[in-house]
Write a structure and sequence with these properties.
- This protein has helices spanning 6-15, 22-32, 34-41, 56-96, 101-108, 121-147, 151-157, 167-173, 176-185, 188-198, 210-226, 243-253, 263-276, 281-301, 304-310, 315-325.
- With 326 residues, the protein is an all-alpha fold.
- It has one domain (51-325).
- Helix 4 crosses helix 5.
- The protein is globular, with a radius of gyration of 23 Å.
- The model has no long low-confidence stretch (mean pLDDT 90).
Length: 326
């Protein structure tokens, strides 16, 4: 396959029915890239669902919409991650009555010996395997942080009086995915305690899995934002929401359904967490208004066929329900 320069790529786009001309659009194509930009944004969710663009202006508007979404979501996502980590950390410290990682393993992480009374031998074995996997993951994270000379970790190892890295220092280097896995390995009692500290609606969450299921859900979006992947069509989505995940938001917010197949559902979940974490109504409403504003701007810059695919038809109704909840 022969290499195409920017002018050749513009001709190729015109041959494909996408109007593109002039130095401004040439610069936009160069800056966003043909492969990252056009090829990355020419479809919705998967390559079989092509967006019916008529001009490069619409392609560029879609890239801008995605960038605006990531800029809006980033700060609030960091806030949620940090706050939930700190609430979980406090629960672990209180229930362990120690800041030792080993004590955390022994007292609040579920294994063969402290599995629920009704657990079968196979279920106990699986819990023990999860515990061992967690220990291995944490040791790898600590070793990597030490190798990279992370002062949050080297401070404890490069100390003659070293007595172990405390749990709170571990939380400082833990990724959101690792954090979710740790939550999933905790005993029912500690997951219940964290759920109550967060004020999660657990009426449908008999197994107390919401705390880590929602973290995994937000983690997929967080990683897409952090790695500048596409977010507007939720192609980053790696989960099939459980009934508890859907019912919690339906009951709390008053929604007719939840499926996490549109970016609106992720906005809803983030707002739910912001409210649980005590952010003011003013700040959360401003966040929703900003989302609506950039979405309306996008709607005006693309043809109606593109807008009908990208913007879910009941988005406005769902945002109004969300604002009443806030």
């Amino acid at each position: 396959m022969s290499y195409k320069n920017t002018d050749a790529l513009m001709r190729h786009l015109r041959d494909s029915g996408i109007s593109i001309n002039g130095s401004k659009q040439k610069r936009q194509l160069m800056n966003t890239g043909y492969f990252h930009g056009y090829k990355g944004y020419r479809f919705f969710e998967n390559s079989n669902r092509r967006l019916p663009f008529e001009s490069y202006e619409e392609v560029y508007a879609t890239i801008e919409y995605d960038s605006d979404l990531k800029a809006l979501l980033y700060a609030k996502m960091m806030f949620i991650e940090t706050a939930v980590k700190n609430i979980a950390l406090e629960s672990i410290l209180v229930n362990t009555n120690s800041e030792s990682i080993q004590d955390m393993y022994d007292k609040v992480v579920c294994g063969y010996n402290n599995a629920p009374d009704l657990a079968t031998a196979e279920q106990r074995r699986k819990l023990q395997q999860n515990k061992l996997n967690l220990q291995n993951s944490i040791q790898s994270s600590l070793a990597y942080a030490y190798k990279k000379n992370n002062p949050k970790i080297t401070h404890f190892y490069n100390n003659i009086g070293y007595s172990g890295v405390p749990v709170w220092a571990l939380f400082e280097i833990m990724t959101m995915g690792d954090f979710g896995y740790l939550l999933s390995c905790l005993t029912y009692e500690v997951r219940d305690d964290i759920s109550k500290r967060l004020s999660l609606n657990v009426s449908c969450d008999t197994d107390r899995k919401l705390i880590y299921k929602y973290i995994y859900t937000l983690k997929d979006l967080r990683n897409a934002i952090a790695h500048n992947a596409v977010v507007f069509d939720t192609r980053f989505r790696n989960i099939d929401p459980t009934n508890a995940m859907k019912q919690c938001l339906k009951i709390e917010i008053g929604l007719p359904y939840v499926n996490f197949k549109t970016i609106g559902d992720y906005i809803i979940l983030m707002c739910y967490y912001m409210k649980l974490l005590g952010l003011s109504k003013t700040e959360i409403r401003a966040f929703v208004r900003s989302f609506e504003k950039i979405t309306d701007k996008y709607r005006r810059t693309v043809n109606s066929n593109v807008a009908a695919i990208v913007i879910h038809p009941d988005l406005a109704i769902r945002m109004n329900i969300l604002k009443k909840f806030i």
